[in-house]
């Protein structure tokens, strides 16, 4: 992408010190783009690192601070949920392994800064699903999505149980047994993932685990570039950027990352992740690693098309960045993510059903 | 320059073009919309508010029209649509509800209660309560009889000192309370009626010019009264336990959890500083009298001590 045409938010993510030079009108656009993309709180963290001398204007600065405050509240709640889940799983004698946001919060990674998480995701061995489900129910989490189609969708085709909601706190836990759907094109080995889990003794609970750092990166990349939706694509890309910047401090990190991608058959998503991070956010990735992930690239035509779609699909979710090409790209990537999730006929049936059931999902204002 | 001095044509030109900047202290809003009815409602309801000329706005809101057949109004913040569309004749109330949502869901420099609040002699009367409890009717009644309107829906308590920052935005009246307020003040400025909303028929009452002019003056919380409309009942005040008052205020707060310890301490201080009551409202006139008495005694006592 030419530097000129880069959206303001992407320019600031690449080079946070740029915030010190923005005029009021640019702040107006930046706050809008960041709020719509779920990145306001992230900007607060980047702004804090500039130090007090940066002298950012008070009115827009407040919006960043407010978003960060909401995120911190969400982290407090997540930490509490982790203690509750740990207690519940103890009864089933299954170790607690956290995924995604809850894992970042537990491990205290930079990626949590300003980041809001909807629910807690955990992974357990598939043969323990029934025991875990009943242990969670005993502790107050109740299954949702009770109609027959949804039950079948989750239990037979997906890699997780239907979300379970706590009857008092209203919090949600997603219980996974793999990181990709059973009916999908890529099927990484859950056993391999679970064998690599690590504790974070600094966090105070030695029996709470997350995937190993390279596996966390692969999971995040897989979610963004394989099966996920791009609604908050730029935010998720920024998550990956911070993960890589922090975790690559370990000298063995890059080698392990590429090897694990190969073992878990997640090389393709890693290729897309590295390529997009380097071109969109200037993430520092050693040249040798960039060369090695080339081995995971698709054939030239598909590569060119996919990268063109991703360059557009990952722009901020804001009218100032939504040309027709962006909308086409997002739609194409949405269809692709479902295409990779299940066989064609089942996909058509699923999308039709989703379109009909979508009604009444958004509240009216009060 | 005030919104009211802008003239209908210029106001609409801005709404359809570069946006109408509103300084709703302490926030700035930029509004875009092609709805004529919304333009005229803004001219009447916000006449006494200053224009905001700066390039930065806290909230950029678009009320977009949708469909030729049975037209609808859509609320957009930064191009995102947090709500379902509403019938076009609810475009103006939709702006008010949507702006409440913007403030309540983003701002963290204040503890924000779902409560009405008015001021007299520097003291704030806080009226928490869910929709339908009679909060707005009572607020309109008080605002039209000597109290200074601070806010109808959102009470903003400053984190640094717990004082109330007013908004003085229009008061949302529903169903029977519209006629009630009309009788009380026949010349009050009301927006056109929107029928069949989620709350029935809705009209908004323009804030008194004096309330808008005095927005910079903060007020100190002095009374916490939980109102409950019970038509036919005898109007009466009952002292409320402080614990109960604290809990109902905490439940009505939008960002109590977000503020953590700060929010807890601020709310505890506020409740400790106030005389908490519940108010059964049989009739509006009596309720106004009872509150007049309560607050007058308190003022005399305060002066004597």
Written overview of the protein:
- The complex is a heterodimer of chains A (366) and B (305).
- Chain A is of the alpha/beta class.
- Chain A has a domain at 65-211: Beta Polymerase, domain 2 (2-Layer Sandwich).
- Chain A has helices at residues 8-14, 24-37, 40-49, 58-92, 100-107, 129-138, 148-157, 190-195, 213-227, 233-247, 253-263, 267-281, 287-293, 300-313, 324-339, 344-357, and strands at 96-99, 120-123, 141-143, 164-166, 172-176, 198-199, 208-210.
- In chain A, 43% of the residues are buried.
- Chain B folds into 2 domains: 3-106, no CATH class; 110-304.
- In chain B, 35% of the residues lie in helices and 30% in strands.
- Chain B has 9 helices and 16 strands.
- In chain B, the strands form 3 sheets. In chain B, strands 6, 7, 8, 9, 10, 14, 15 and 16 form an 8-stranded mixed sheet that branches.
- In chain B, helix 1 (8-16) crosses helix 2 (36-45) and helix 4 packs parallel to helix 5 (176-184).
- The mean pLDDT of chain B is 92.
- The chains are: A alpha/beta (366), B alpha+beta (305).
Question: Helix and strand layout, with pairings?
Answer:
The complex is a heterodimer of chains A (366) and B (305).
Chain A: H1 8-14, H2 24-37, H3 40-49, H4 58-92, E1 96-99, H5 100-107, E2 120-123, H6 129-138, E3 141-143, H7 148-157, E4 164-166, E5 172-176, H8 190-195, E6 198-199, E7 208-210, H9 213-227, H10 233-247, H11 253-263, H12 267-281, H13 287-293, H14 300-313, H15 324-339, H16 344-357
Helix pairs in contact in A: 3-4, 4-6, 9-10, 9-11, 9-12, 10-12, 14-15
Chain B: H1 8-16, E1 20-24, E2 27-33, H2 36-45, E3 59-66, E4 72-77, E5 86-87, H3 91-106, E6 110-120, E7 123-128, H4 135-143, E8 148-151, E9 154-158, E10 164-165, E11 171-174, H5 176-184, E12 194-197, E13 200-205, H6 209-213, E14 220-229, E15 236-239, H7 242-252, H8 256-273, E16 275-281, H9 284-304
Parallel strand pairs in B: 2-3, 7-14, 14-16
Antiparallel strand pairs in B: 1-2, 3-4, 4-5, 6-7, 6-8, 6-9, 9-10, 11-13, 12-13, 15-16
Helix pairs in contact in B: 1-2, 4-5, 4-9, 7-8
